[in-house]
């Protein structure tokens, strides 16, 4: 089977231990992630061939980040070296009424300062049949937005399937243009998009009652190239207790997954990324769209119960969860 | 603004890691606290000027304890040095049906063996407008009770506002007198008191249904100098799940806060202290008594979700919780 | 009082830290257990004299395992040395929808390769009045099954009371015979047995509604030597939330304990073993069978809230839980 | 073989991690020791039957301390319960020019407040043939000095062999008498004593060049009951580098061990105690006094290379070191 | 006594645990430092009043950094808030032949992007009598160089004593000018300077044999305002073994300290800073220049034996080391 | 360039933390290694293409082991799955006079129970030009010895260069034949062999003074296919202090490297493997045999200063050490 390409910023994550606050922390746990790298890592564990494309500085922290990707089976050989620094973020896990906190330290990163022609997409897209990107990359800098546009053009020319995740982080968009100015022209290329829609509040506890069909139809009208609209719904009872489900719409039917009741949250970072990874895998390997959304929801539920940015789970583990919703011991 | 004085014993706390029992523990986490020090640390983080007054031995463990207070901005320059030992306690966190356990090792401490005239209150109370004490101090020894009495007299003479927290720990009162013999004469000085009342069982799960007005009136009659009665209500579903709210009574109206449902407890030690600290801050900075009690309850809810004796939170974080009761991620 | 003998395999357990997955783990926590060793450790902490009998290799890991038993007061002097290796298992704690995982690495262990005449039961059973075994031992190898049979014969000859725990682990039974071929002849010796019955599904959330009397009568008919049938019922809401209760049947009455709602599971491994240990203790020390089952259920609830294979609790702590079902702080 | 009795204070030790200073430490490692408990633990690991006698409070920290002794095989059943607190000390390991630091917090301990008739020595000395004590015990309080005197009398009456370790800690002797007033009458009972002598400076780097014969003769003259004088010599190049050797004198010959060059110190606490334990074991099991002192020096060298108060080593490991002075890998 | 001002960048340091390499590290230790902050922290622990001046972003990582300074007693109230990010560095400790590695990630920091008029030196220098700066600050950016120049002018106008540490890090100087272009005009203001001189190779193992008088005279000629030239000499036998000593020259005599043989290095970062801090303290408190250099060398030797950027030691500990060069246990 | 194949057992290593003994360890560090896997990991980090061939069971511990190899860039796709268990060993680091201890638990491993025809060498050797094996593999079982023989035959047929490391572990050879019976026929295939010779004691502190030429000539005569004989010399001053150097002989000249003085050992496991890896790299990339042996000695010196089985170093770091023998800080 051909390979999947994901493109975005590679981030080092420094998390506090257990439920410590940053102000209490004399040690930090080091993980690596970033939305598109997370998708790559999860897909590689599902058995797909994946290339992750980014730009990183040459130092031992980067080397550790690449080792982290390589251990999951992601190919890192086409990553560019250059620039000053790896993007970082500091993460303090919330508990019940105490919100999780993220301190981003990703400005001036090697990725943000990429040159728009730096990547040789012709080499990268050889043997590829899928390209995944997110709205975080064009948020980083004009050069990142331009590079994304070029990548999407090249991918479309080659008939590569394109999935995009809106992944809105308003406070990242500060290079001069707003997301509403840039995203539409990029989303035009998508075959599959994880959307945002003004009438869908995915953080409501009863999000699954939304009229996804109506919203989906409006989005398909706006983006006629798109064949599949994706929503994830998170009911935030507290920082420790969420519900989680997914919905997809193919222009005809709305498919909504089982709603998982995540009563003891372990780590919600990367939850949406793990959903997208599992969705891509499922679309490539299963016909039944209901099963596809169940697979994506189950896989990403496991992510919420796993520390770090990366969803550490196999296809078999996802299938077992779909079969058996309670967490029995296995011995 | 003038400064706040808190007075009491400084304690080292040795806690087991996670949910380990003491009998399993080969490592212990070191924190520092004590009811009055906790109030000081929290007030300093809210931006108040605070002096903590105590008596401590001269050694590196004490030095670490003082560093812990200083990092939060508490002034420690008026603490007395002398005596043999720092009070300690060992703490094993409970889980669901397994109760938390505290082993006190504070007898013969430098604080307990203070001389009643040792502290120069005239120096300490200069530039102060608030004095906070708790019922733990007079419980420690006759000298501590006498010193507290002297402090209260001096404070009253200077027109300093006085808040007192009954903070009953029956097994500490073993120097010859019972709390019912000593506390009334000390409470007479209080402008604000966190009370205990025979008809109010604050550990009932429906504590907020109590007749706080009736109880408050009885207390105000007994302590005519007092203007404000304070109650905290803890509904103990299990060691891992409590509800928490506060109530204040000013002789006219009962103000009860939102009842927080703390479904995944992190550390309840210092919960009452954090309530008192936030109450003092709020009384100094807000007019509306309903907001005052909401501020105190929200702040102390955050304490229950933070490890250690000290409430690590800012005014802004408390205000955010008051606005938004669920713990969303912030990035 | 005379001593209790338990017999089985001693296991080293390597667990991941917190909620880490094995694939994420660069450190593992070392504990020691095994069903019968767990029963011994718990009984010794309750104040009983207990000998644990097993076969172990001669090396420092074994030495550490024996130190672990000795610290609880278990006598290890009659353990045999020999063979190649200590049985091991790797344990990854589940969370909510993510199941716990056990990787057994106990084949070819010193215990499994025991010679059937290796143990001098006459020496061991001197001064003993109780023998406890489980269905795990005959599952390990033919020699283990034979040794168990010999032990049961010797115990019966001496009038020693015998308790057996079916403890079915189907994937351990792979030396040629199935548990249905071997267990009946071993269970014939039991005075007390923790049973399995085709009509009792103890993992149902409403398990306590089963007809334990009918099932118990059928078992007593099949095993006429038996006087007491034991069931534990686990309602698995998720890997983090179980209910737990016990039921015993003496041929006349069914005694079912309080059903504990374990909302935040710490470690369920050894839950059944701690129930059996507490049951044995209670049968030796209390008359009232209702209190016996309450004691066993309360003790084993504490095990679910304690890390490791061993139930670290005292008789006093169990009694306090029976009295007071919520987990208040004790100071 | 008959059993050995050691008597003294059981201490909890809280050490900083690695080379951290107390002022930097947010976690502390918990070990248990005390000079006489250390001797007991080491002897039990050598295979001797040992009883440790002390007085301790009833709480879970004590329970952990007893578990620590029991894991090594020390019998703790004759330890008295009573009093307020377990003696503690805080330990900061030195490095090169930075000295190790000990903060004692052992005043008012259960041991120090023992009643002089509290211990039933007749029961304890049954089946015993050796009694070991140190000069730390009489330093703690008058009651401790009196109890030691009574124990020595009782032991002498029963013909039990007595070993005593001067173990001078000047700052512990503050109950009213100095060590020079109390120690001589206690030392009169000793068959073997680890001595101090005004002309022997055991911390000199060339200590082994002392005239041990002359010093020993003077001591034997002063204590005619004594048969063996023991010296340990520590050459302190730095906190990280010491030399270590032992010398014994039987009134005829001086036997000095190999001088070990401990170039990378791990933990010197308990070094002298491990020497005494190994000496006692060797005197009971070997004839050749040169081998006895070699055994004691080798064993205690291993202690300097092992963390904690306790010497974790077997007879076989000591013998291997005597044979082979370099530390090759064993596989 | 009046206060001391130090000015420079505050850095977060993320170090690997023990001797792990960055590529192996899943956890990092968090400390805070920077050359001038280190000088401030050490001086505060010696009992001096110190203000640290810098510019930092507003987030919880900064807050933790300020807490770290405040715990030592440094006043942080005049630090400016603004800009994007706190400077960071990653530190991997070397061992013997494996060099220590530093990855700087301090570009675009809040300090580097300071406006040259941002600091109100008139307020800061009130009640100050000493100003300390290093060559790292002008290396960061033109604005930093300009700000340093302004500060030096203002300090000189007020008659404040000025000490400067050349502290050359060639790879930091990349904003357009080289250190040889900028440093001379800044050094003109210094009363005391820690110098570099082409003929003095301070990393030679026999550095103390240099002709410090000749070099010093040349420097005093070039910088006529200067009264004292400071050199530190490090003999690098390996990453684990250095020698360390200091030399000062007052235009008349060369004073060289004892040469410390640091056979087991703990952490050399901040070694030079701790020397400068102790030198400043000693110049303010002692007359004898030989004692001054001994004090500075002894204090900074302790820094090499203490983890983190900060020298955690008291005046008393330094004096004890001057008296007694070996690291005996203190109890 | 073509790829390198290494073949052997993959081992999980459980090491005690710091200098703890196994008997003290409640946590163990998990690493993965095995002689041939170590060679593969090091070569991959030097930039070579490497395949590691082995047989492993299917479980998450294995998966973690493979992730460990993949992170360094080793290809694991040709590893066979099957059998019961992964080989393990427990490692306790020695200190000075206390020897390191290894407890092997590798019997009955998936590798030991391989079928001799299980591996398809024709596929594996495609695109390969180098095969590396060690004497550990034929020691494990007859099947392993047979498989090694087949591999060597196949490699020789294809003209693949063969390097073998005698790597004698006498206590592993217990399947019926001794190493002297099996090794000679396997060594016949070697182009390069790391030898043992009766007259060369490589653990002598003056090993480099041996007559390597005479020994080498005898070995070349016995194994005429061989072109290069390799020796490593370890001078064991203590478990914490070794010297280390290498010698190669090509039938004409003896090339001996610089002798490294490893005064503070971090981890000597894998020292020989890292030498072989670096030697293979150097033989493929450099002409000068003196440089080859310097490269191998320098690289493996870094391994002794790095925790774990794997040599975490790059070509650049090795070259820097060859240039500069002391470990200066790099910033």
Automatic annotation (TrEMBL), chains A, B, C, D, E, F:
Keyword hit for Kinase = yes
What keywords are assigned to this protein? Kinase, Transferase
> Highest taxon of the source?
Bacteria
Single GO MF annotation? kinase activity
Carbohydrate kinase PfkB domain segment(s): 1-311
Tell me the protein family, please. Answer: Belongs to the carbohydrate kinase PfkB family.
This chain belongs to the protein called Sugar kinase
